[in-house]
Design a protein that fits this description.
The complex is a heterodimer of chains A (about 290) and B (about 280). With about 290 residues, chain A is α+β, with helices and mostly antiparallel strands. Chain A contains eight helices and eight strands, in the order αααααααββββββββα. Chain A has two domains: about 5-170 and about 265-285, no CATH class; about 175-260, no CATH class. In chain A, helix 1 crosses helix 4, helix 2 packs across helix 6 and helix 7 (about 150-170) packs antiparallel against helix 8 (about 265-285). The two termini of chain A are about 45 Å apart. Chain B has two domains: about 1-130, Four Helix Bundle (Hemerythrin (Met), subunit A), CATH 1.20.120; about 140-265. In chain B, about 75% of the residues lie in helices and about 0% in strands. Chain B has helices at about 1-15, 20-40, 40-70, 75-100, 100-120, 140-170, 175-205, 215-235, 240-260. The longest helix of chain B has about 35 residues, at about 175-205. Classes of the chains: A alpha+beta (about 290), B mainly alpha (about 280).
Chain lengths: ~290, ~280
């Protein structure tokens, strides 16, 4: 499809054409945003996000293994696509850096989704371009495998995994706030949109002192005591407990934040790969 | 209760007496730099000897402090600065061993001395408990890797400006670019670590590893800028002017990220903009 936009070329697009493509893609994003409005990411909840991600993987694999010599695959795995996709994504991020990401009365800014860029079409399209370019460049180094490409794979695959898991998994996050009391078990919390959420467990506050909260979590007749403070959350059965608002004194209530993020392990795998990979970049810096 | 603990701390500090360790390690670092300037066969060895000695004195002091206060020394401003001093001197020394960068040894020992001196002049800093949000194991590594990254990327920017001047004077700048590459690779490795440590820390503190906070946005753009440089150099090794401008541009972004965002209207709610609080 992308090749068709350069029908007169027998070779893969050069740097200038890649740049024009990137500009066109982001421009297209702006147009869709203006006429169609922002993205409703709630549709992307599991399993839809998982299926899309699987589809992206499949496209990359089929593209690479079935059509390795096609101009499209060669171009997407080239540094031309890499550089232009990074520049495109930088441009989108730069907009975020200059325009406050909160409610705005300017029609021009809201119409192009400039105050909510992470939910806009231009962001999504440039991210998709980056994911394909990074994906094709990575798979080229994974198969056939050479030991010398090990570090390359750590850096690139790590970033790919972290980017995909963070952007696709973000819709499945649950951020709940729960008011807890010293003398009664609470079983409901408020979600991001202000709705009620029934927890699969009950929580009671046992103690609040020194900026630490001591709570008991009751789940199917089993009580688990937890201690949480700022920078020291606690974990229980896939739920993370954070201090949100703490009132010292044994009779006052406090607020805790309970977070579930099913895609987090995947993001962390990507980040750890990048941490290890950065040591290679470090040692590469030699005369 | 905080006051009682602080008082107790202070007593322990007195017990170990920072003064001796401060003077001794500073003396070693100064001697290391002096022998660096002498630049003969014997002084090359003494640079190593004095550097390692200075670092060991710091290590010894931190171990003794740790033992005496019965907790990791990571809770007060003074204690955090001790770690800055230790890691800066270690990394500065390693970079000197590997690449013979004298400027970086001077820079890192200079910064080490500055942090040690601040603690010496204001011993009460050892009792000033950090705000709870900063009491994290990620605090020191996050700050350290950024101090180092910015030093190398600033050096790369100086090299780039140097290269641009040489280019317009029609001189050969192939060598200059190789030096710039070197600096960028090291600096880039460190900002990658800084960015990731920051994300991991944010997850512990607020439950989100990424919230598009203005500082995060600008740090990310900076990271992308150097990423463009690395890929451009890789794909067009023969071109010289483009990469130099990319470097200069990336450093301009880095400066916005570092302190420019304090003046950006879009960044007034950032957790990293301290002026408003």
């Amino acid at each position: 499809m992308i090749i068709k936009s350069h029908p007169s070329n027998s070779k893969e697009p050069n740097f200038k054409q890649s740049f024009i493509f990137t500009t066109g893609l982001i421009g297209l994003g702006f147009v869709i945003q203006w006429f169609g409005g922002g993205l409703d990411l709630t549709y992307l909840k599991f399993p839809v996000n998982f299926i899309i991600l699987l589809f992206v993987c499949l496209v990359i694999c089929i593209g690479y293994f079935k059509y390795p010599n096609s101009h499209l695959v060669e171009w997407l795995s080239s540094t031309k696509a890499a550089i232009t996709s990074i520049i495109g994504f930088s441009f989108i991020t730069l907009l975020m850096g200059f325009i406050t990401q909160e409610d705005n009365t300017n029609k021009f800014i809201t119409g192009f989704g400039l105050n909510n860029i992470a939910y806009s079409w231009q962001y999504s399209l440039s991210l998709l371009y980056l994911m394909f370019s990074l994906g094709f460049a990575t798979i080229k180094r994974i198969y056939p495998f050479h030991v010398k490409n090990f570090w390359y794979i750590l850096n690139h695959l790590g970033l790919w995994i972290a980017l995909c898991a963070a952007n696709f998994g973000f819709v499945d996050q649950l951020h709940l706030r729960m008011k807890i009391n010293p003398n009664e078990y609470m079983s409901f919390a408020i979600d991001q949109d202000g709705g009620f959420y029934n927890m699969p467990f009950n929580v009671i506050q046992t103690k609040a002192e020194n900026l630490s909260l001591y709570i008991d979590v009751l789940e199917s007749d089993i009580v688990t005591p937890l201690q949480i403070s700022i920078n020291n959350p606690a974990k229980l059965h896939g739920w993370n407990f954070y201090v949100f608002d703490i009132n010292n004194g044994n009779k006052k209530s406090s607020v805790i934040e309970i977070i579930k993020e099913p895609w987090q392990p995947l993001v962390y795998i990507g980040l750890i790969m990048m941490i290890i990979g950065s040591f290679f970049v470090f040692w590469r810096g030699k005369k | 209760m905080c006051f009682g603990e602080a008082k107790n701390n202070f007593k322990n500090m007195q017990h170990i007496d920072y003064t001796y360790y401060f003077w001794l390690s500073s003396l070693f670092f100064v001697l290391a730099l002096l022998s660096l300037f002498l630049n003969n066969k014997i002084s090359a060895k003494t640079t190593h000897f004095f550097s390692v000695s200075g670092i060991l004195v710091l290590v010894l002091f931190i171990i003794l402090l740790w033992l005496s206060i019965h907790r990791p020394p990571l809770k007060t401003l003074g204690e955090t600065r001790l770690w800055y001093a230790l890691f800066l001197s270690i990394i500065g020394y390693l970079a000197y061993v590997k690449w013979k960068y004298r400027w970086f040894l001077i820079y890192s020992f200079g910064m080490t001395f500055l942090f040690l001196l601040l603690n010496y002049l204001k011993p009460e800093l050892f009792n000033k408990t950090l705000m709870p949000a900063l009491q994290s194991v990620w605090f020191v590594p996050h700050v350290i890797v950024y101090i180092i990254a910015y030093a190398f990327l600033a050096a790369a920017a100086i090299v780039a400006v140097n290269g641009l001047i040489a280019y317009y004077k029609n001189k050969n700048i192939r060598e200059i670019l190789l030096l710039a590459d070197n600096m960028v690779y090291i600096g880039y490795a460190f900002i990658t670590l800084g960015l990731i440590f920051g994300a991991l820390w944010a997850k512990d503190a607020w439950g989100n590893y990424w919230t598009w906070d203005p500082k995060e946005i600008w740090a990310f753009i900076t990271w992308l800028g150097y990423l463009v440089y690395i890929h451009y150099r890789y794909s067009n090794p023969a071109k010289v002017l483009g990469p130099l401008w990319i470097l200069a541009f990336s450093f301009a972004i880095l400066l916005i990220c570092w302190f420019g965002i304090n003046y950006l209207p879009a960044a007034q709610n950032s957790v990293h903009v301290y002026s408003g609080q």
